[in-house]
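Table S2 (continued). Query chain:
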Amino acid sequence: MKTLVIDVGTSGLRSSIVHDDGSVSDLHYEEFSPSSPAGGLVEFDALALYDAVQRVCTATLSNQSVDAVGITNQRASTIVWDATNGIPVSPAIGWQDLRTVGDCIMARIEHGFALAPNQSATKLSWILKNGASGHNVANLKFGTVETWLVWKLTNGAHHVTDHTNAAVTGLTVASGTEWNSAVLSAFNIPHSCLPAIVPSAGFIGNATDLPGAPPITALAGDQQASLVGQGCIESGLAKITFGTGGMLDMFTGYDTPTQARRNTHGTFPIVAFSNAEQIAYGTEGIMLSAGTNIEWLRDDMGLIDSPQESHDIAATCASTDGVVYVPALLGLGTPNWDYGARGALFGITRGTTRAHIVRAVLEGVAHRGADLVDAAEADSGVTISEVRIDGGMSRNPTFVQALADATGRPVRVSQMTEATTLGAGFLAGTVVGQWSHLQQASATLNWAATVHPLGEPGVSRQQWSEAVSRSRSWIPDLSSLDF
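Corresponding output:
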């Protein structure tokens, strides 16, 4: 059997085929970056996005048919369209957009809602107030990326989202199973514009706009898809995706969270995945900059010519010789949540070389990964015995070893840089019998490497904590923000 997976990220999209043995073929990719018309604004053309999705899918399906379609996507990006013609009323607002920071602050002050600007709630409110004039509100439809794709792929027959995507919009109750009427009322959001919330794995409808009209049987946010795609479907299993930022997601079980807001140690409750029988939950920690630091070394500092070279250069020295780098280029996420923190280098001497600094950057990101692990354990009360990773930095041997040393745990490296594809494929395939259950699908996983800690990290965790404390509150006004 074969499953088509549509994977829409922040800067590009792809389609591919997932086979019974867990292998992936027929991958077609298109770059699709959002625009930034002004500082803090992030937008994209939803119609152009769909056209690109249709192109890559048509290429993947050339001369073959599939049994199911799974969709995984960047979360919380917000699209509003008119159901009478299927045309968006305004540019879609990307999840990184910051135009509603003030609205989030006021929501906490006036209503006690803990909403963040990267969630959909205030973005949807902004579009309804500023982009929908001249439209009958009864005809408007809201959706995140997967909702928009299902609407288009089924020619308007289905307006749905799944639990994993709905629960990170800021618009649901803590369980992610229904829309929060108090939030809707506070932001004047009509319930009629919201999609139905369905399980992550289950038959939705036929993709009549694709060759062969295959059934759509799974939807999942990108981080949850990566969680499933790395086999983290038992309590205590966790993965970190090291892309532009870093995201830890941990499977915690089937107990419903009591609140949707941030936990004590800076992680958030999430829906891990769901089917018709049950909903699985997890916790998520966020690193605001991971691969961004490697881009900084290359594009701004000129210390490396390519991301791959960061390993080669760092490997020329056995340690940082006391240099510590705090990767807070955009502030600190879990566990500190200090938007006013800034990147910092400590311990530089006359003998510090390019290699020391490059290694310090890799080790700094690794220590931030260890921070996420510590926070997830503290908030969940569950021990993480090993760390599974994907994303671009997972291909850097120096970094992976530093992560194993900083966490004191084995690190398993996903065979696929983008495990999101496998996760969406596994969820969709279980619905049509490609695999009888997720455990059987996960059994097909092979790992690129398993790296064990070699000892204590070069920079102790205590010294690391001291460096982080000195990087905090560099911009006090930003440090005072709390979402």
